Amino acid sequence: MISIKKLSFSYPKKPRLCEEMDLELGEGKIIGLLGMNGAGKSTLMRLMAGLLKPVSGEVKFQEISTFDRAVSFLNQMIFVPEKVSVPEFLKVNEYVSIYKDFYTGFDLERFEKLLSEFQIIGNQRISNLSFGQQKKLQIAIGLSTGAKLLLFDEPTNGLDIPSKSTFRRVLSGSLQEDQTMVISTHQVKDIENLVDQIIVLDEGKVKLHADLEALENQFVFSQGPQAPEQAVFVESHLLGAQYITRQLEGERISGGSPDLELLFNAVIAGKLTGEFLSTQNQVTHE
């Protein structure tokens, strides 16, 4: 689906945000893109969308360079930025009647259902919508395009708690086998139990790209009064500690779904990396 090879990028007179980055994203996955502020999450999303040109290397969608902005690519990609910009003089239904013509697979019935889920009325003027409602409008459009590649940058920013719950509900199980969704966020809890894969960016590098199922098979994410000595990563708090330990061979322990916030902190601290996971895989299969 998306192939990134030897990608480097920087803005003029600023440090590089991507440095010789390699990444492959397959179909049928919801991928969480995590990183600290300034780590380059939004920049990577814009490179995937073809809105920025790499300094070197390549970003391809099904062998098409994204920066070429070919019609065949644009028809299969939707990018929902963190800061929405919509024509406020139009009504919602007028806006979508224009937007849908750019996507041959646009599902108007699904769009209207999502509007209902998000409690937005079609004949409302966009200027009368709050920022959160405008954000939900863009999300509803994005999910209705039928695009193969969906890029959502901080989609839950500006949403209240019920809207976040609705976002997770409508997204869960709605992705088709030939679609890929990348969600960039710093609000890790908003995408827990939703994503299939996780990517952690730090210092211009991909520090981790892993399936959550594989992580669950290799590690236990738990908490208690005290962390065991063999813990890979520990975070202490007033009531004890949260920690990550390795699964013992032949003793599968259920620790539930990986705690993404704990996982992210472990990666940033250098306790869990792609290299570490590769080593664990080698040990497991020996």
Give a nutshell description of this structure.
The chain has 286 residues and is α/β, with parallel strands linked by helices. The protein has nine helices and 13 strands. It folds into two domains: 202 residues, P-loop containing nucleotide triphosphate hydrolases (Rossmann fold, 3-Layer(aba) Sandwich), CATH 3.40.50.300; 75 residues, no CATH class.
Largest sheet: 6 strands, mixed
Biggest sheet: strand arrangement: 6-7-8-3-9-10
CATH superfamily descriptor of the largest domain: P-loop containing nucleotide triphosphate hydrolases
Proportion of residues in β-strands: 25-35%
CATH architectural type of the largest domain: 3-Layer(aba) Sandwich
Low-confidence runs of at least 5 consecutive residues: 278-286
Molecular shape:
globular
Q: Fraction of residues in helices?
A: 25-40%
How many domains? The number is 2
Q: Whole-number radius of gyration?
A: 20 Å
The first-level CATH class of the largest domain is given as Alpha Beta
Number of strands: 13
Output the structural class: alpha/beta
Count of DSSP helices?
9
**Would you list the SSEs in sequence order as H and E?**
EEEHEEHEHHHEHEEEHEEEHH
What is the CATH fold-level name of the largest domain? Rossmann fold
Q: Distance between the terminal alpha carbons, to the nearest Å? A: 32 Å
Query: Please, what is the average pLDDT?
Result: 87
